[in-house]
């Protein structure tokens, strides 16, 4: 074990030789060696004596003349005062190095003295700047993942990436059971979930965020309206490069996030998290009489079933919905977009679930769900549930404006449009007849064509 002590250092010069040095007799050499050994032994004794003296001094508490002028710490040696821990007055961080405290204080002051001369990046630490230049400007990525071919400019980045394969999450939250693969992710979790602090404020509205990048995303999406990143496949535009990369997976089919309990995989980590909660943990923390695995699902349920609010409206036909995603799917009816393609025929669909129904009905031929009353078979359990209502007479969808009820929701929707909605978007070009349903217009047109 190395021992620190204060005094004049002893320099030892080592020489390599083979046999007795030239010009020195064996007797003289032996005498010289003996004297050297005695001198070395004396020096060892002196060193041991000094060490014992230092240890003796540390054992006597009353002999500590060097005192800290900020706390009650005292020590026998003046040099130890210089190494006495420095503490941050903002958060209680402590260190034995004054330089480390200076670097730490930049977290609170926001000072970033190290500037990149090739872009506008700046950082509080020189090491971060070196890593930035290596990763962003040199283009050299010598570290490669053996699992997927991912390459990195620095070893630490590759080490973090490897955890996506191993599932290792060494950073544990001390306030809940959350764990993370990276310390930065854990810090974000604590800031977002436990501290309640949202230090980044939007200067154009009352929005605030726990991370600077979230504020930047908000400003780009809500205030500037800029969407510089465009998909070359379908023209989809987005405010952020990361969102474009996620979108591209709808075209490439890439699903890098794998479930470790079944063969499910997802294009986004959040989707995998939803899957894990819904399918494997069994937790449904969000409750109405209805219960849900995700808060967003409960919010959608509440908006659709209880508040009656439908803030999203189609400008083409007046269709309203409680969810923005449903409006996006609805709009495909008008623009004719059908992004989901069948790989066995030329069929395409506006929604993935519709394509799944098509695949089961037309190509696999599998109809595992059968009615015990009449032998009706279907590829989908939902279809069997609807069919069973023809036997039971169940009509769970009730109109809130009259006593009409229906066995299927789309039948109720048709009723609402026909009987209670003033807006009738389908108009006959031959006469002034108008209707809320396209099928009614088709029937009406036969009065003109004499079909």
TrEMBL record:
Keyword Metal-binding tagged: yes
Gene3D superfamilies: Classic Zinc Finger (3.30.160.60)
Segments passing through the bilayer: none
GO MF entries: DNA-binding transcription factor activity, RNA polymerase II-specific; zinc ion binding
Pfam families reported for this sequence: zf-C2H2, zf-H2C2_5
Chain spans, region Disordered: 1-44
Any GO BP annotation: regulation of transcription by RNA polymerase II
Domain C2H2-type: 86-113, 114-142, 143-170, 171-199, 200-228, 229-256, 257-285, 312-339, 340-368, 369-396, 397-425, 426-451
PROSITE patterns cross-referenced by the UniProt entry: ZINC_FINGER_C2H2_2
Keywords from the named record: Metal-binding, Nucleus, Repeat, Zinc, Zinc-finger
Protein name per its UniProtKB record: Zinc finger protein 135-like
């Amino acid at each position: 074990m190395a021992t620190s002590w204060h005094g004049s250092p002893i320099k030892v010069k080592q020489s390599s030789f083979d046999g007795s040095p030239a010009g020195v007799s064996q007797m003289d050499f032996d005498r010289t060696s003996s004297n050297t050994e005695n001198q070395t032994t004396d020096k060892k004794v002196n060193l041991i004596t000094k060490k014992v003296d230092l240890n003796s001094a540390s054992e006597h508490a009353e002999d500590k003349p060097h005192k800290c002028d900020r706390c009650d710490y005292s020590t026998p040696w003046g040099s130890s005062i210089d190494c006495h821990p420095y503490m941050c007055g903002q958060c209680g961080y402590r260190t034995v190095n004054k330089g480390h405290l200076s670097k730490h204080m930049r977290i609170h002051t926001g000072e970033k003295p190290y500037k990149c001369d090739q872009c506008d990046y700046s950082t509080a630490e020189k090491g971060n700047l070196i890593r930035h230049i290596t990763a962003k400007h040199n283009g050299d990525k010598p570290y490669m993942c053996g699992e997927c071919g991912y390459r990195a400019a620095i070893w630490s980045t590759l080490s973090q990436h490897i955890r996506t394969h191993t599932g290792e999450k060494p950073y544990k939250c001390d306030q809940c059971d959350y764990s993370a693969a990276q310390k930065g992710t854990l810090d974000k979790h604590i800031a977002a979930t436990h501290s309640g602090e949202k230090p980044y404020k939007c200067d154009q509205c009352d929005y605030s965020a726990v991370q600077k990048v979230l504020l930047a995303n908000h400003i780009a999406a809500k205030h500037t309206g800029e969407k510089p990143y465009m998909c070359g496949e379908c023209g989809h535009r987005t405010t952020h490069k990361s969102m474009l990369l996620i979108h591209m997976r709808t075209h490439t089919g890439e699903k890098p996030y794998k479930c470790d309990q079944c063969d499910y995989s997802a294009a986004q980590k959040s989707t995998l998290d939803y899957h894990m909660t819904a399918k494997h943990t069994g937790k449904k923390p969000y409750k109405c009489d209805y219960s849900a695995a995700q808060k967003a699902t409960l919010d959608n349920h509440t908006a659709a079933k209880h508040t009656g609010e439908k803030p999203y409206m189609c400008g083409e036909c007046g269709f309203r919905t409680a969810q923005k995603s449903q409006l996006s799917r609805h709009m495909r009816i008008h623009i004719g977009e059908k992004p989901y393609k069948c790989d066995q025929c030329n069929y395409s669909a506006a929604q993935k679930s519709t394509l799944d129904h098509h695949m089961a009905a037309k190509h696999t031929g599998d109809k595992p769900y059968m009615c015990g009353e009449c032998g009706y078979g279907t590829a989908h359990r939902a279809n069997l549930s609807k069919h069973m209502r023809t036997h039971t007479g169940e009509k769970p969808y009730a109109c809130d404006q009259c006593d009409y009820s229906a066995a299927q929701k789309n039948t109720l929707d048709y009723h609402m449009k026909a009987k209670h909605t003033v807006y009738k978007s389908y108009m006959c070009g031959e006469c002034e007849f108008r209707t809320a349903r396209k099928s009614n217009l088709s029937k009406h047109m036969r009065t003109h064509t004499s079909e």
